Amino acid sequence: MFSSLITSRIVATLSALLVILVGCGAGIWQLNRADQKIRLGQSLAAKLQMPILNANTDSLSLEQATERRILARGRFMPDEAIWLDNRPKPIPEGATGGSGQSGFYVMMPMKLDGQEAVLWVNRGWAPRNGENRVELPSVKTVGNEVAIEGVAFPHPGRVYELGKKDATQSSPRIEQNFDLGLEAQTHQWQQLPFIVRESGSSKEDGLLRNWPSPTNGVDRHYAYAFQWFALAFTGFLFWLINGLMKYRRELAANGDKG
């Protein structure tokens, strides 16, 4: 039986082994992604219960501020805004519809009141014009001093980007990703070592801030994992059944009906 299943079916065995390894590997990766999202959600939920920090009065490092609620007061600098392209519409947990719509994250620096530092703020999401990429949606920016509240992160999230970023800056600045260190070098100004994702969806500024939980999509990872494991199991069954059928044919050809 060993010879019939394996030795005489080297190509089939190697092919089945490849399918099993790929399926199991991808399934484990999906489970790890789900676990990572759950741990991120737990960490964020715990830090959101901590006292709110003040960007104007507290001297905050990236480690101190990450995933903490931040209060900031200052004036936005709309002329320095960066529009991060290819960002999906934020859909809160439990909501449906519009998840495939693409748009921009509006990154805008805020000159903090009472100090020289600048704070970069992810003000929210705006839809993209499908026919004219450089025609930006209308976003209202108050010219006087404003107070915002949000959550601090190291960056606004990254998407895949082909090639290196061009050093030249067009207007408007439509980018794929945001580099906090590069912006400090470009502008030669002092800035806080984190960005703040603004909270609150009641402002009438044309932006959406229905930020989803980090655990959003965990069920999808579990579903993908099941599919990959099912593929691996199907590959094994296909190899085993065909091998057993070959073995029975060999027995029949040798006159052994057993």
Question: What does this 3D model show about the protein?
Answer:
By secondary structure, this protein is α/β, with parallel strands linked by helices. It folds into 2 domains: 2-32 and 219-253; 52-213, no CATH class. 35% of the residues lie in helices and 22% in strands. It is built from 5 helices and 8 strands, in the order H-H-E-H-E-E-E-E-E-E-H-E-H. It has helices spanning 2-5, 10-48, 62-65, 180-187, 218-253; strands spanning 53-54, 69-76, 82-88, 102-112, 118-127, 146-153, 173-175, 191-198. Strands 2-4-5-8-6 form a 5-stranded mixed beta barrel. A hairpin with a 5-residue loop joins strand 4 and strand 5. Helix 2 packs antiparallel against helix 5.
Write the layout of secondary structure elements.
Elements: H1 2-5, H2 10-48, E1 53-54, H3 62-65, E2 69-76, E3 82-88, E4 102-112, E5 118-127, E6 146-153, E7 173-175, H4 180-187, E8 191-198, H5 218-253
Parallel strand pairs: 1-2, 3-7, 5-8
Antiparallel strand pairs: 2-4, 2-6, 3-4, 4-5, 6-8
Helix pairs in contact: 2-5
